[in-house]
Amino acid sequence: MTQSIAIVSVAQLPSIRRDQLRDEPELVQPVVTEAMSKVGLTQRDIGFTCSGSSDYLVGRPFSFVAAVDGLVTWPPIRESHVEMDGAWALFEAYIRLLHGDIDTALVFAFGKSSLGPIPDIMNVQNDPYYVQPLNLDSISAAALQARALIDSGKATERDFAEIAVRNRRNAKTNPNAQVKGDFDVEAILREATISSPLRKSFCPPLSDSCVAVVLARGDKAKELCKRPAWIRGIDHRIEAYSLGVRDLTTSVSTRIAAEKVGVNAKKNDIAEIHAPFAHQELLVTEALGLDASVIVNPSGGALAANPIMATGLIRFIESATRIHAGEANRAIVHATSGPTMQQNMVAVLEGE
Amino acid sequence: MMAENCAIIGIGQTKYAAIRKDVSLPGLLREAAIRALEDADMTFADIDAVVLGTAPDMFEGVMMPELFLADALGAVGKPIMRVHTAGSVGGTAGIVASSMIQTRTYDRVLCLAFEKQSESDAMWALSPAIPFTPQLVAGAGGYFAPLIRSYMRRSGAPDDVGIMVAVKDRQNALKNPYAHLHVNETIESVTNSPMLWDPIRYSETCPSSDGAVAVVMSNEKIARARSKKPAWVLGTAMRTEATFFSGRDQVNPLAGRECAKDVYAQAGITNPSKQVDAAELYVPFSWFEPMWLENLGFAEVGEGWKWTLEGKTALNGVLPINASGGVMSSNPIGASGLIRFAEAAMQVRGQAGEHQVDGAKVAVGHAYGGGSQFFSMWVVGSETR
Questions:
Q1: Is the dihedral of CA A231, A233, A238, A243 positive or negative?
Q2: Which ipTM value was assigned to this complex?
C-alpha cells in the first residue's frame, strides 16, 4: 500500500468557448493553486510537477515555457512536460512517484482551442510528406471512422445521436461543462452534415480551460485526503499511424491497455471516456468490454467540454471527484490522442 | 532510492549535417534506432516502450510527431511518450526512460531524440511575436550574449576564452565521425570570423544540424546477459526555474546548481572535479563552457575560464569537456541533450573511439534549455554503485 499512488485533489477552470482574458500563466496559476490549497499544500511541498500542452494550439513555440511562469519556481522545482494530453503528464508523474523518494506530484494541462482553426491545425499531426498536403482535417478523419462503423453494421446514426444526447444531458449537473442540456435525437438527425456522416451534434465543442491534479503516494495520500482515488493500474498503447492499415471500427490499443490494467477484474461503477466524436464512445466501450451497468461519462465527456490537451486529464479528474465524494468506488478512465484515436490510455481508479 | 539499476546497452547516432536530404524524418530516426538496437543486440521487437524527445514541433512542422512516427519507431502496440522541455528535452527524455527502468515499469526502453532543422527555420521559430510580450527577433544568440558579457564582467575573464573553447571543441569533433562540423579550426579562424552577437563570433556558435540519437536502456539482469559493456545510470536530476523572475541569476542559475548537487549526491560524488572523468556539457555558445564549469560545481565561481585557458578541459586534460566536439560541433536541437547523455555513456563504456578519454569510469551528461532555466543531468559509470 505504501507504494500505491492516488489522486488526492483536483481543480478545473470551467470550459468556455473563448477565454480572451488569460494567457498561459494566468490560466495555470489559479488552477494549480486551487488544487494544492484544497489539500493544504503549496508548490514547496510538491516533489515533482509535470504538464501537458501543445504549441500548435497557441501557434507559438515553447508555450509550456510561458506556463511555467504561472508556477512558484523559487526555489527551483523538479519539473517536466509532455507535448501530449495531460493524461500522459499524469503517467510521467506516476512513474516518478514510484521511485519512492518523493510523495507528492502536481500535474496540470491547459488547452486554448480558441486561438486558431482547430480542425485545420490538427492536419499538422499527419504525415508531412503524403497526407498533410491533402489537408485531412480532424473532422474529416473522424468522419471516415464513423462511416466505416456504419458500413460495418456495428452502429447507426441514431446511435451517435443518442450518445450525444445522453452525454449533454449528463453534463447538466457539471458546472465545468460547456455544452449541456436536453437535446432531441430526431432534431439532431435533421441537422446538416459537416463531413458526412458527422453532424454538428456528433462533434465536440472547442473549449479553453486549464485543469490540475495533485497525486500523492501511500500514507501521504491518506493524510491529505479522506478517500483518495487510488490508481490501481495505468497503461497506454499506440497503433499504426496510417488510417489505411488500421481497422477503424475497433480500438486495438484500448483493448491491450484494458487487458493490462484488468478493467473487468472487478465491478465498475463509472467510466470516463475520452471520445471527442460521438461514435468513438462506442468503439471505446466495446474495446473496454464494459458491462451495461457501468455509467458512462457522468460528466458529459468530451462532447460537453473539450479543452484540447486537457480533455484526457479531465477524465481522471471527473472520475476522482466521484470517488472522493463516495459516489463511486471503481472508475475506468480512458484518454486518447491522435487522428481517429490512434493512441489510447486506460486506468483504473478505486476508492477502497 | 533506485529499486532497479538502469543500464545503457545500446547507443546509435546519425551522421549530423546541415541538411540530411537523403532521409525523411522516419528515415533519420531509424538510422539512429537501428544502430542503437544493433549495439544492444536487439531488434524493435525486444523493446517494451519508446520515449521520444524533440524541441518545438514547429521546427519540423509536425504536431506531436510521435503519432506519425509510431510505425517507424517500432512502437505499434506499445507505449510511447513524447517529452518536450525546450533545449533540455534530450536529457529529460533520457531521464524519463531511465526512470521507467528504475521503477520496473518496463524492462527495455528505446529512447530517441531528434531534430531536422533543415525542415524549418529555427531562428524564425525562436522569435515569435507574442501579444503583449517584447519580441526578441534575435534567436538564441541574442538572448544569451548579454549573459556572457555579464559573466566576463563578473569573472574578469580575458576576451579569448570563448575562442579557445571553440578551437578545442572543433578539434575534438575531428575525432568524432558523427560530428557535423569537421573544420580545422584555429585561433586565427575563430578570431577572424564575423561578430554576430557581441561577444559571440560566428565560429563561437553552434551549427544548425539535422540528426537523431537513440539509446537502449534495460534492467540489470538483461544488461548482464546481453551486453559486454553496459554503462550504469548512477543518478538523474532535473530542475526548473521561471523565465521571468527578477530574483534569478541567469549567469549562474540556481536551478543548474541544485540539479548538479542532487545528481552528484545520488551518484556518491562529493568532489566532482576529482571524481568525474569526463563531462558532456550543453555548450551552444563557446563561453558557456566556463559558465557551466562554475554552475555545476567543477570550478570555483569566477575560476571556470582559467580551467579552459590552462587546458584542463582538453581531451588530454584533467577533466575533458565535450570530447565529442559537443553542441559547438553538432546541434540537432532536440537531440543535443540526449547526445550529451549518450556520449557520456560512450566514455564509460570505452566506446568513444578516437575521442575516448583514457580510463573514463564516471561521466556526466548535461543539458539545459529555455532562458537558462531548464536543467537535466545524469551521471553514468562503468560499474553499478
A1: negative
A2: 0.97
